[in-house]
Amino acid sequence: MDALTDDQRPLTDLGMQQSSDMGKLLAKQNIDLVLVSPYLRAQQTWDCMAPYFDPPLEAHTVPDLKPSAVVDETALVIEHYAKVNQAQHVLVVSHMPLISALVCEFAPMFSPLSFVTASVAELNNWEVGKATELYFFAP
Q: Which residue range(s) make up the domain with 132?
């Protein structure tokens, strides 16, 4: 809480370590697209994860990925990025409550999840309403 506004709130040291650990785990996946919130802590999360990806991945900062975003519109933005980039494995770095609602938007049969720093939900489809599998990982 060391910031005047939510968008400038940084990660804690623990959050940086957890993000780095998750980067090591996710680097083993075939991620081909990274979408990141413009908020400082999301940018820092990706900065902690990025060094583990080989070849390096370029992240796209997406203004819609902020906590107060409209869920259905943001889901369509993510779907569009995935289609345009022909991406099968998309990493979205964002915030609560948006990220939990997005999981339900892509996979309506699942209940909302509570994400802590560096938690990951893995879905099997990036078309809105079409995901049927969910795996959840937390540090």
A: 6-137
Is 67 within a domain?
yes
Residues 6 or more apart whose Cβ sits within 8 Å of residue 119: 113, 136, 137, 138, 139
- CA 136 to CA 115: how far, in whole Å? 9
Residues of the chain with pLDDT under 50: none
CB under 8 Å to 2, separation ≥6 — which residues?
9, 10
Q: Which DSSP category does 138 fall into?
A: -
Number of domains forming the structure of the chain: 1
User: How far apart are the C-alpha atoms of 41 and 30, rounded to whole Å?
Assistant: 24
Beta-bridge partner residues of 121: 136
